[in-house]
Amino acid sequence: MNGIIYTFMRCIITNKPQEMENKKNLENQELEKAKSHIIVEIIEYVSNSVVSKTIIKKSTGNISVMSFDNGEGLTEKTSPFETFAQIIEGKADIVIDNKSHVLEAGMGIIIPAHTLNFIKPNGRFKMILTIIKSGYE
Predict the structure, then answer these.
(1) pLDDT tens digits, one per residue of 24-57
(2) Whole-structure pTM value
(3) CATH among 1.10.1090.10, 2.60.120.10, 3.40.720.10, 3.40.50.150 for 4-132
């Protein structure tokens, strides 16, 4: 992966500290409630990057939308929580316990808790990640 992962900044980098802090605060906010949203349009692609935006963040879990530019993915990891990955644009290769799952727009997969997984680069795509923190099962 050649790009920068914007998991925490969730925005294009700026050299001005105040602008960067304002962008962090704005991007960490949930989407406006009781308003319709076109999900694929709430996040844009950034060259050589993975971008994440929080839709809902609660102590019991969160929902984020992510965009991946060409050649970008996520490194191998495990999570103590179940995660639902839903592709909303493009095509993704999600590897769970060394088994590859190619998903296209409209498809989703549950990544079991405590399972090694990663996302291989497979062109540009956007997805929604839903993490459920109901407990350790």
Answers:
(1) 444 556 788 898 989 899 999 999 999 999 999 9
(2) 0.76
(3) 2.60.120.10
